[in-house]
């Protein structure tokens, strides 16, 4: 039974119950059917707006995305009655795209309401444009239906999600105020800063006799900007294939130019049927994934699975041809029908290609995040499917963007279920943008606020040890070679010690000794720490889960290390004396030393950002040390940094990195040649 069928059944039953009284035996007989349908596909009313969601969200994916994405995440362990906290404070133009929050007690039968007041000040106005409790505002957004956006809110058990765009021209500030004593309060806010987004439209709240209402002042046709896909002329076709274990035996080509608007796999494919798609003669596939994980029986804004029919609605442009390959490594030949729809027309050279990549790992370590996507290039990240990632408190999301640029960025969440817009491990529903039918099968589409990147992109997800997670990442990438910028980032090796408590002295040298310390991880936690080897990937080093070398490796709390320090050291070999310019990305304070002397003491900032460095290298090996602090910030308690060097031969030629000074001073270590 499809999601739409479930919704229709629910409406029919509601009508039947309203006009007549049925025997109890008949009503009880219906209950198992209804519960079974709700397990497979949610009866959320949001799914009835799938067509509108696709019209609104998917078409804009092919437009330029020149904004800067941002995400603030907070966990306040205690909020006292009357206490206020600022959770967002921005200057410039842009919009808030998603606000998620929870504060209830896990496992409670009733979600307490009216406990947290939200005050949103727009464009430096002295009074808030929007004010109300979080749950009240989310219910008011839900009541707007699809008048403004097709997915205004998602309220599910303990989680509240607000999706109405809040536009601002000069800035926005969001405050929360506790109306009661609150043990734990969580919130995550997704936003964008965009100099070109200067809407005259302003979202405001208004208290009426019927209660709180939300409306837009100014241009009230927010959702009319997206071209309606229903008006696009499409050419439909289908191909019958007999797919066996050889990849080259089951393929066909769609001639271009055009945009593949719908791709459907019909029939009952074997579990390991593989999908590969090549755009315009590429040697390597832009899409590579098992069908099982690409569609995953999800029903959302981009995918729709029905019995014997799986459909992808992501727009997929190509200029000359699209080659689609299907094969099943372990199965005998199987009949598969591929049905598709193409929008014909010339495709600009600047329109990006659609990509999807499957990834898995046989055994997680617990202290290093699972890499869902690590790439170089320019494009936008639009979402993922995630499987078998275990207990939600294994960790949250971390998007690491553009380490080798002037503006490296970190977008970091809290716990695993929070990234999927749920709370306290709840599951059982799907929406156009988020879904968790069960714990081990979840998706998150960033269609309301894709993540643009210009140089590199990494998406990591924290999981506990001894798991076998699987994932499919979805993104668009510009079809051009990576342009070399003025900065370059590398996979640099480091020795790392920590985290350690603020009262624990730092070791003077790298050694094999074990040290005892106490660090706040929810509660003060005793750790026995030692030096570890880590590697910076494409200029980023995420140390958020470094403490799991010593504790909470296979299970435990979703909390990460609080106020603490981490020591990092590496060695740089230079063939001559020189000054090297660098960009160090950070949000907390960093003490920078070279050969024992302090060269910079960088203070913390509100959010991740770059600080310039000049590193005066001597000829031969140099010891480069960093002491990284960590505390509450707009990225919760994220601990990490980025590092990039100026791309100039007179600065980077001949540089080598090594976590230890080789006995032979002429040894090369890790090359940093551009």
List keywords for this structure.
674 residues; mainly beta; Jelly Rolls; globular
Per-chain topology:
Blueprint: H1 3-19, H2 24-40, H3 50-57, E1 68-76, E2 84-91, E3 94-102, E4 116-122, E5 130-133, H4 134-143, E6 153-156, E7 159-162, E8 166-168, E9 171-178, E10 185-193, E11 202-208, E12 211-217, E13 235-243, E14 251-255, E15 258-266, E16 274-279, E17 287-290, H5 291-295, E18 303-306, E19 309-312, E20 316-318, E21 321-327, E22 334-344, E23 353-360, E24 370-376, E25 379-387, E26 397-401, E27 409-412, H6 416-419, E28 429-430, E29 434-438, E30 441-445, E31 451-453, E32 456-461, E33 470-477, E34 487-488, E35 493-500, E36 515-521, E37 523-529, E38 531-535, E39 540-542, E40 564-574, E41 578-586, E42 590-594, E43 597-602, E44 609-617, E45 620-630, E46 640-646, H7 649-652, E47 656-658, E48 670-671
Parallel strand pairs: 17-23
Antiparallel strand pairs: 1-10, 2-9, 3-7, 3-8, 3-10, 4-5, 4-9, 6-7, 11-12, 13-22, 14-21, 15-19, 15-20, 15-22, 16-17, 16-21, 18-19, 23-33, 24-32, 25-30, 25-31, 25-33, 26-27, 26-32, 28-29, 29-30, 34-46, 35-38, 35-40, 36-37, 39-46, 40-45, 40-47, 41-44, 41-46, 42-43, 42-45, 47-48
Task: Summarize this entry quickly.
The chain has 674 residues and is mainly β. The chain has 7 helices and 48 strands.
């Amino acid at each position: 039974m499809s999601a739409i069928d479930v919704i229709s059944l629910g409406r029919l039953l509601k009508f039947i119950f309203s006009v007549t009284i049925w025997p109890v035996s008949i009503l009880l007989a219906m209950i198992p059917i209804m519960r079974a349908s709700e397990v497979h596909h949610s009866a959320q009313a949001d799914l009835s707006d799938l067509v509108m969601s696709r019209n609104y969200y998917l078409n804009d994916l092919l437009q330029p995305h020149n904004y800067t994405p941002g995400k603030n995440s907070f966990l306040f362990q205690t909020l006292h009655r009357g206490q206020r906290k600022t959770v967002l404070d921005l200057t410039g133009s842009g919009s808030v795209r998603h606000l998620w929050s929870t504060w209830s007690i896990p496992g409670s039968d009733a979600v307490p309401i009216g406990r947290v007041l939200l005050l949103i000040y727009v464009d430096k106005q002295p009074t808030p444009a929007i004010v109300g409790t979080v749950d009240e505002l989310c219910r008011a957004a839900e009541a707007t239906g699809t008048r403004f956006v097709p997915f205004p809110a998602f309220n599910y058990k303990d989680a509240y999600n607000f999706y109405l765009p809040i536009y601002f021209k000069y800035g926005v500030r969001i405050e929360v105020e506790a109306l009661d004593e609150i043990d734990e309060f969580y919130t995550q806010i997704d936003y964008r800063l965009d100099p070109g987004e200067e809407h005259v439209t302003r979202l405001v709240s208004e208290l009426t006799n019927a209660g709180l209402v939300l409306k837009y002042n100014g241009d009230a046709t927010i959702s009319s900007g997206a071209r309606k896909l229903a008006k696009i002329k499409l050419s439909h076709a289908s191909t019958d294939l007999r797919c066996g274990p050889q990849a080259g035996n089951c393929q066909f080509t769609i001639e271009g130019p055009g945009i593949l608007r719908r791709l459907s796999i019909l029939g009952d494919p074997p579990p390991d049927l593989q999908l590969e798609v090549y755009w315009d003669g590429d040697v390597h596939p832009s899409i590579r994934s098992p069908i099982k994980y690409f569609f995953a029986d999800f029903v959302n804004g981009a995918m729709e699975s029905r019995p014997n029919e799986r459909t992808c609605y992501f727009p997929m442009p190509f200029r000359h041809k699209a080659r689609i390959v299907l094969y099943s490594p372990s199965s005998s030949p199987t009949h598969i029908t591929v049905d598709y729809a193409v929008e014909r027309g010339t495709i600009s050279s600047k329109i990006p290609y659609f990509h999807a990549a499957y990834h898995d790992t046989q055994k997680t370590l617990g202290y290093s995040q699972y890499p869902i996507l690590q790439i170089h290039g320019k494009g936008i990240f639009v979402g993922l499917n995630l499987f078998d990632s275990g207990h939600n408190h294994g960790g949250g999301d971390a998007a690491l963007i553009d380490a080798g640029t002037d503006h490296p960025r970190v977008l970091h969440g809290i716990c695993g279920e929070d990234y999927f817009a749920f709370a306290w491990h709840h599951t059982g529903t799907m929406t156009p943008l988020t879904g968790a039918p069960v714990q081990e099968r979840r998706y998150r589409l960033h269609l309301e606020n894709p993540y643009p990147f210009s140089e590199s992109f990494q998406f990591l997800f924290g999981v506990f040890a001894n798991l076998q997670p699987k994932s499919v990442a979805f993104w668009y990438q510009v079809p051009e070679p990576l342009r070399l910028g003025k900065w370059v980032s590398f996979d640099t090796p480091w020795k790392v010690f920590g985290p350690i408590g603020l009262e624990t002295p730092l070791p003077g040298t790298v050694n094999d000794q074990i040290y005892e310390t106490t660090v706040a991880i929810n509660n003060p936690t005793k750790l026995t720490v030692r030096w570890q080897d880590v590697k910076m990937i494409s200029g980023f080093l995420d140390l958020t889960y470094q403490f799991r070398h010593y504790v909470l490796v296979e299970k435990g709390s979703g909390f990460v290390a609080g106020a603490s320090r981490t020591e990092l050291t590496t060695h740089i070999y230079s063939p001559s004396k020189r000054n090297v310019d660098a960009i160090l990305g950070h949000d907390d304070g960093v003490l920078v030393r070279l050969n024992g002397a302090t060269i910079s003491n960088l203070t913390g900032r509100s959010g991740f950002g770059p600080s310039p460095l000049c590193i005066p290298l001597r000829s031969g090996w140099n010891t480069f040390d960093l002491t990284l602090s960590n505390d509450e910030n707009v990225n919760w308690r994220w601990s990490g940094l980025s590092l990039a060097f100026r791309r100039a031969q007179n600065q980077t030629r001949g540089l080598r990195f090594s976590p230890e000074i080789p006995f032979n001073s002429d040894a090369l270590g890790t090359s940093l040649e551009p």
